[in-house]
Design brief:
single chain, alpha+beta, Lambda Exonuclease, Chain A, 2 domains, six-stranded mixed sheet, globular
Length: about 450
């Protein structure tokens, strides 16, 4: 049975209705206050390096890859030990700047891993400037005057160690103003395809990979980055007892990550199974953009949603923490954003047969939050921006119990296949996915019939 078989949707009692009022409302919002291209906070810490990351990315070395993986593992472990799922990896957007906060539990927490643990007596404003600037920017995005910085040394680099500082911030509007200046400068550099005008890279004389590869032609005479954000950072206060607690958590053993990181794994479990085998790496919910969103139309729809009134668009999590991927919600209900190159959207009465995978992906998210209603928002790539390029539909599922069973059955079938190292019984992928699947030669999806059902 195919993963997105329309017949199986009947058990969910799906009803699809056009929602033209919402489409009109979002289009009016877009035209009256067109959202700018989002810039992530981490790019604002070193805009010149961010420019080159996008223009001429340099693959990490083997050692860099190891450290990145170790850092992800520590983030996963400490995140689960320090905060509930609803407070982890929280995405926020304000004035075109996007941040993904490690922990937002009243105030923002920033977790950093390093092989060189700072001293408990040093001032991290001087030795870990970017760490504190990042925390300050997150605080400014969520209107909090304080935050917590946690720096840890991975067990792989010696005995586990931790340093924890509580930090207060001065003028949040000043921090946001500096963020806006840096974001505008980076957008302009990308638009004109030139890094001229961006401040000197922080790694210019410290082994910059882009200089090593001959991509960046920095001379070292470029102006230094503004200290406006750092000037609003108060003296960090070291937290001895909290640091000791974090060290105990680090040494207590790894907290096993959830088996399922993304809803896409549950929607297309056979693909997820073979993706896991081929990568050989831990799955991560990093990269919140769903697969299959190929262009800026999807990003433009998301920007319109994120720039709405506070609380209208929120990211929520399954209370169990699995999947760990955040669920976008709009006015309390899950929302699925897609883009399409079709000239005409699929009408409501044909979505079940023509786009069943959309309904499956939304159903899984609704099940996690115990909701029976959701939104499907479509960005039409080939419709001009002055046309009706945002189309909305309201989706209703008839049974919360059927949704819950769907979610648990999908989790169990994928978990069982991974335990057995045998994908037999997992639903085959839909035809549109099979045609470009990198696992076609080993999977057997084309023409294969399996017993898996939704």
């Amino acid at each position: 049975m195919r993963a997105d078989d329309p017949q199986d949707l009947a058990a969910l009692g799906v009803a699809v209705a056009e929602a033209p009022e919402l489409g009109t409302e979002l289009l009016a919002r877009y035209r009256s206050h067109r959202p700018v291209r989002g810039v992530v906070v981490t790019d604002l810490l070193d805009p010149r390096a961010a420019y080159w990351r996008a223009v001429a990315p340099v693959p990490p070395t083997e050692e860099e890859s190891r450290r990145l993986e170790e850092g992800r593992r520590i983030h996963e472990q400490l995140g689960r030990q320090l905060a509930p799922a609803t407070a982890r990896e929280v995405r926020v957007r304000r004035d075109g700047v996007v941040g993904k906060i490690d922990i937002l539990d009243g105030r923002p927490f920033e977790l950093k891993s390093t092989s060189s643990l700072p001293s408990s007596t040093e001032d991290p404003r001087a030795t870990r400037r970017s760490y504190l600037e990042q925390l300050a920017m997150y605080a400014a995005l969520v209107e909090r005057p304080d935050g917590r910085l946690i720096v840890v040394r991975a067990p792989a680099d010696g005995a586990p160690g931790a340093r924890v500082w509580d930090v207060t911030f001065g003028s949040l509007p000043t921090i946001r103003a500096e963020m806006a200046l840096r974001a505008d400068a980076l957008r302009y550099a990308r638009e004109v395809a030139s890094p001229e005008g961006l401040p000197r890279c922080a790694w210019f004389d410290r082994g910059c990979a882009y200089r090593r590869e001959g991509a960046c032609q920095c001379a070292g005479s470029e102006p230094e980055i503004s200290s406006a954000v750092l000037e609003e950072v108060g003296r960090p206060v070291f937290q001895t007892e909290v640091a000791a607690h974090v060290e105990r958590l680090l040494g207590s053993g790894t907290v096993a990550p959830g088996e399922v990181a993304r809803y896409r794994e549950l929607a297309y479990p056979r693909r997820a199974y073979f993706d896991g085998i081929e990568s050989g790496a831990e799955r991560s919910a990093e990269g919140s953009r769903p697969g299959g969103a190929p262009d800026e139309t999807w990003g433009a729809v998301l920007a319109v949603l994120e720039d709405g009134p506070p609380g209208e668009y929120e990211l929520r999590h399954d209370p169990s923490g699995e999947p760990s991927e955040a669920i976008p919600t709009f006015r309390g209900d899950p929302i699925l954003v897609k883009s399409s190159r079709s000239l005409r959207p699929v009408p409501a009465d044909s979505v079940v047969t023509q786009r069943p995978h959309y309904l499956l992906e939304l159903a899984l998210r609704c099940a996690s939050l115990g909701r029976t209603d959701g939104w499907l928002l479509l960005g039409m790539e080939r419709v001009p921006s002055d046309g009706d390029w945002i189309r909305a539909q309201r989706i209703r599922f008839g049974s919360e119990g059927a949704l819950s069973k769907l979610l648990e059955r999908r989790k169990e079938m994928l978990s069982a296949a991974r335990r057995r190292s045998d994908p037999t019984g997992l639903p085959t992928c839909p035809t549109w996915m099979v045609e470009r699947c990198p696992h076609r030669l080993v999977c057997g999806c084309p023409g294969e019939s399996t017993a898996g059902r939704m």
